[in-house]
Protein: ATP-binding cassette domain-containing protein
Amino acid sequence: MRLSQVSFRYSRRGPWILKDVELSLHPGSVTEVTGHNGAGKSTLLRLLAGFLPPSHGSVSDRPGTVGYAPDVFPTDQPFTVAAYLAHMSRIRGGSPASAVELAGRLNASHLLEQPLGDLSKGSAQKIGLIQALLTPPDLLILDEPFAGLDEQTRAELPLIIDEISSAGGMVVVSDHQNQLRTFPGAVHWLVADATVTPHTPEPGARPADIRPAHPRDADRLPPRVPEPSARQAVIEVIVDAGDADEVEQKLRADGYLTRRSS
Ligand SMILES: Nc1ncnc2c1ncn2[C@@H]1O[C@H](COP(=O)(O)OP(=O)(O)OP(=O)(O)O)[C@@H](O)[C@H]1O
Structure:
């Protein structure tokens, strides 16, 4: 998927929020978008999701199945959580059972019979996440998904992101708190001054935030990339352990699938 010379402003005479943005996303990539409040992260995500059309430039090769969880999930709808998710499943061609399973995984089973309007911000955030995952997305876009989540769900979310990207999906996550800064192989974009640039996050990350919480979780993870097909070749690259994250990040940014053996 590619953004070519994309510029955007909300009104004809309004300020440019993004100007001449050039970006590529590759299957299996995980991209973290950071930037100050009001920098344009949500706007970029809405352009990627296709909810906003560029004012200039073009977006090409957006995949067919897009999951999008907005930064604020709209709860002013006259449904219970279960009825809303069943309805969204029907629209998306997913199974209602997957909504129930996801609710269990994201510690939200107890919310299913509640009216949407009664949800707290963190609970509403979870329902926004579940609806984005109802059918396995080829492009998953999460706008500030960690805000307001309980600890169990915060630990589960990186595993879900890893599963989607391991299956070849592209994941883009905006997060001004940098929760994914040490996510293995993640690409990082900084939105500032109406431009989007790759950057290397500051050290000092808290790995416990983004890695499997304990070995049992690690055991449950599928391999990071599927087994290669007959038309693919595998090249092993041995690097110093301290350089592994950087090398993997560069390879993924160039569109290669990577797998770490240690
Ligand atoms: N619907 C809109 N109409 C007009 N201006 C908007 C609209 N949505 C956002 N903006 C403006 O566009 C700019 C970028 O907003 P955006 O929400 O994309 O930034 P952000 O980096 O996601 O910020 P935050 O971290 O606070 O969510 C801001 O100046 C904001 O006020």
User: Anything to note?
Assistant: The pocket of adenosine-5'-triphosphate is lined by residues 10, 17, 35, 37-43, 71, 176 (CB under 6 Å). The domain at 2-65+136-253 is CATH 3.40.50.300 (Rossmann fold). The longest helix spans residues 151-166. The first strand starts at residue 2 and ends at 8.
